[in-house]
UniProtKB/TrEMBL annotation:
Species this chain originates from: Nocardiopsis lambiniae
Record Pfam families: AraC_binding (PF02311), HTH_18 (PF12833)
InterPro entries (alphabetical): AraC-bd, AraC_XylS_family_regulators, Homeodomain-like_sf, HTH-like, HTH_AraC
Keywords, sorted A to Z: DNA-binding, Transcription, Transcription regulation
Protein name: AraC family transcriptional regulator
Domain HTH araC/xylS-type positions: 184-281
Length: 285
């Protein structure tokens, strides 16, 4: 079934925003975003997937492990799985983009076809790769029209072009292996206690560190302080429950947010859309 076209905000309304999150059936486990943001800002967060954002207007500015990137029309904002990053407007009129979020296995499979070994990474985050950008943009438009064959072919060609021009093998992950065991234990405690997490002081005492030392060790290992990591996990759990058809008000309580408004606020700061819109687009029911 074809997808409805997205009407971009009129130029005479410079503060207008829109966002649509949806599932792409042309690649396994891949979600998509079509959006224009002006005042929206994304807190420090991660995705379990790759992020390939094609900027179609304005400028997006964002931080990532390599520094800060500013990407304008035709450029690509590329973030690897589990990389902590932010996002906000780089110019007063904001930015518009089309984003693919493919599962790591999808990108690995394409890389293998090109003869690349190891986990695929990229030489930079803000990337100027006209051929890849053109193919990915065409793939996004085709997916929106419901052209499954055309979109799935184009997106694979686009990712392959990007890997050829800017791909590399991701260096071995050393953070987890070198992490203080107290940070690893703190992460396990937070993941197990979403609805009743300890205070930082209680968490630090439980793992045998001072609050300052724990916060520093945790951030060094996971890229986020404990409270931000907790909210990241809550949003991830909420996504799965929403897709399964649970009501947002129930989900909010089940993952540890105080109410639905609290869930809405954090959901928007991580994904750019409210929980209800996300559920309507991706629900299996």
């Amino acid at each position: 079934m074809g997808m409805p076209s997205v009407v971009h905000p009129a130029l005479e309304d410079p503060r207008a925003e829109h966002a649509r999150y949806w599932r792409f059936s042309g690649l396994p486990g891949t979600e998509m975003l079509t959006a224009r943001f002006v005042t929206t800002t994304f807190t420090r967060h991660t995705h379990p997937t790759y992020t390939f954002g094609i900027i179609t207007g304005g400028v997006e500015e964002y931080t990532h492990p390599g520094g800060t990137s500013r990407v304008g029309p035709g450029g690509l904002a590329v973030v690897a799985p589990d990389e902590v990053h932010t996002g906000h407007a780089g110019v007063p009129e904001g930015w518009a983009y089309r984003v693919f979020y493919p599962e790591p296995e999808v990108v690995v499979d394409i890389a293998r076809e090109l003869g690349l070994r190891g986990t695929p990474a990229f030489t930079e985050s803000g990337i100027d790769a006209p051929d890849a950008s053109r193919l990915l943009h065409a793939a996004h438009l085709a997916a929106e029209r419901g052209d499954r064959l055309g979109s799935s072919s184009l997106v694979r060609r686009g990712i392959a072009a990007l890997l050829r021009s800017h791909g590399r093998e991701r260096p071995p992950e050393v953070r987890e292996r070198s992490a203080r065991p107290e940070a690893v234990r703190a992460r396990e405690i937070l993941a197990a206690r979403l609805t009743g997490p300890p205070t930082l002081e209680e968490l630090a005492a439980e793992v045998g560190l001072s609050p300052f030392a724990l916060s520093r060790a945790f951030s060094a290992t996971y890229g986020l302080p404990p409270h931000a990591y907790l909210n990241q996990v809550r949003v991830g759990r909420a996504r799965a429950l929403l897709v399964a058809g649970r009501r947002p008000s129930e989900v909010a309580v089940e993952v540890g947010f105080t109410d639905q408004a609290h869930l809405n606020r954090h959901f928007r700061r991580h994904l750019g859309v409210p929980p209800g819109a996300y559920q309507r687009a991706l629900s299996v029911l």
